[in-house]
Amino acid sequence: MKHIVLISLMSLFLQAFEYNLVPKKVAEDTYCFFGKLENISKENGGNMVNTCFVHTKEGFVVIDSGPTYDYASQAYEKMQQIAKLPVKYVITTHDHDDHWLGNSFYKSKGALLIGPKTYEQNVVAGMETRMQRVLGKELYGKTSIVKLDTIVDDNLTLKAGDKVFMISQPVKAAHTKGDLIVFLKGQKVLFVGDLVFSGRITSLRDGSLVGSLEALDMIDAYGAKVIVGGHGYETDATVTEHFRSYLQEMKKEVQYALDEDVGMEDITKKVTMPQYKNMKLYDVLHARNVLDAYKELEMIEDEE
Ligand SMILES: [Zn+2]
């Protein structure tokens, strides 16, 4: 009997993916878990995203809940080692599933979920997510889709314990058509979701190149000391510069090609930007970004 109990307990443990999350302090009372600079895979359990949490007197505020229920549950255990406090609010920066599939865990713990309008529009109960397809049933585990409690239309000021969070959508379309940024006023920490990438290539497929550049100017205007993006390890204020140069270079080269009447079929061969070749996910995402940039800039030209 003892053996049976032990074996079934062991199989329970085996089922949950071990994320080995280590919180890194980025500012006073502010911590992040940094994910890998790669695509979603069974080997990483979807942990290729950055999520953060802020310790307030009232409880924790989480910014992006990560790729699965188990990820969120393990993140929560790490928070409890810092303080035995509930998670009061979870803010979702945008509707890409690597950032919010932990919401179902926090909902079960009584947290209030806050996010953009696009979440309500695009996240439908029962739909199969990209994460689910790649991870499979076992790793996906108890992950499910839950609704938000509060939608941020334009901006929202959230007071939690001793901290003030200013949540806003800087532009109509940048990484997606609903990107929220969260400014932790006292600490001068700005959580920017996927409006800033470091060390790897971004994806423009759901957003806008021009909007992404505008968003970077607005981010810089906050004068934040710490800027945490959705992917990548750099968190100092210069992180926007590096990301901006990738986007600006692409805009310049694609615009030049358009002026030279380069056709859509040749554009990805023309704008290779080899100086970015050793960035992670260049092979997967760069050509597609160039194509999206081409379509966008061509459309702007047609409108003018
Ligand atoms: Zn992302």
From TrEMBL:
Residues 48-231 form the Metallo-beta-lactamase domain. It comes from the Bacteria. Belongs to the metallo-beta-lactamase superfamily. Class-B beta-lactamase family. One of its GO terms (biological process) is antibiotic catabolic process. It holds the Pfam family Lactamase_B. This is Metallo-beta-lactamase domain-containing protein. Coiled coil: none annotated. CDD domains: metallo-hydrolase-like_MBL-fold (cd16282). Gene3D superfamilies: Ribonuclease Z/Hydroxyacylglutathione hydrolase-like.
